[in-house]
Structure formats: C-alpha cells, structure tokens
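seq as requested:
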Amino acid sequence: MKLVNEQELVISSYKTKPLYSWIKQMIDTLLCLYALVALFPLFLLVSVLIKFDSPGSIFYRQERIGLNGKAFQVIKFRTMRADAEKNGPQWADQNDSRITRVGHYLRKYRLDELPQLINVVLGDMSLIGPRPERLVFIEEFEKDLPHFRNRLQVKPGITGWAQINGGYELTPKEKLGLDLYYINHFSVLLDLKIAMKSVPVILFAKGWR
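struct tokens:
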C-alpha cells in the first residue's frame, strides 16, 4: 500500500495534465454510455429485486461533494431500509442492521454503485478517482486531517486507488493518504492499473461492508 508523505499532502500534478484530463473525460463518457445500454437488463433485474425485498424507492440519491467543492446528487441502488438515517448521518458498519437482504449482495459485489455511470455521463464523476464524500463527513474528518479537502482537486470516481488497496476497511487517514497518492501521481498507466485491479475486487468481493 503506497501512502503520501507530509510534503506531498499539498502537491498535485493533476493541473499540469489538462490534455489527459480532457481525453479521460471523453473516454469516461463514451464508456459509460455504452455500459448503460449493455447493462440495461441487469438494471431491470436489480430494480425488481429491490422493490420485492423492501418498501421504498429503487434508487438512492444523496448529496456528495465533488470537484472543487461542488455539490451533486450521487445515484445508487438503494441497499438500506427507507428509514436508515432517521437518527442522522452515519457510516455503515460491517454487520449494519439497516442493510436489506438484497442490499447485502449489492454491496458485496459493488452493484449498488452501477447507477453512478449516470453521474459520470452528467460530468459530476469519473470512472476513476477518489470516492465522493458527504459534506458532514468532510467537515468531521478535517478536524484531525486538515488536508482532507485536497481530495477535491480531481473529479470523484466510481473506483480508485483507495478502493483497490483496502476499500471500506480503510480508516479516513489511510484513505486520504491513498487518494492523495493518486492525485500526486495521476497518469494513464496508474488509471489503467486501477481499472484492471478493480475487476478482482468486484468479482471476489474484497473490502466490502
């Protein structure tokens, strides 16, 4: 697992690669449009299972913070009960009782993330980048990790360097280190490496909760 050192925390090479950033956005959009068409039958199947499993909507929308602090609505398949946050925002635990039966498997194989392909097409996210966080958690993490907002120098992603190096098992500090490593070493080769390593993470349900 590669982390950044203290000197790297405020450095980002992302802004020095505008051409690749533009190319990456074009590739993201085309791939996601194709994936949305190809995966339409799976979307239908998951939607039916969710509706039969528990009352509530099929999709779950939640405000997250993206590039340069811009807020957007992230889209997921609903994996928790409709009243999951009646006591306020909280992270999901390993054996969270709020997770539905279908939601358990959707999370295990990351299928709940599929609707975020729409977020990529809308331009709010990328296929690869730091996972988007809620403002309430960003503000909480900043109390101990003052560089946490540096993650917002790039578009958030569906998968990323942190996801293939621990995912849900990481502490906020470990996650920040891995996300900043990605930002500081942003490249075509690193994106390809993340894309390839994301496949076994999904297939073998590594680091899920």
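The two ends are 20 Å apart (CA to CA).
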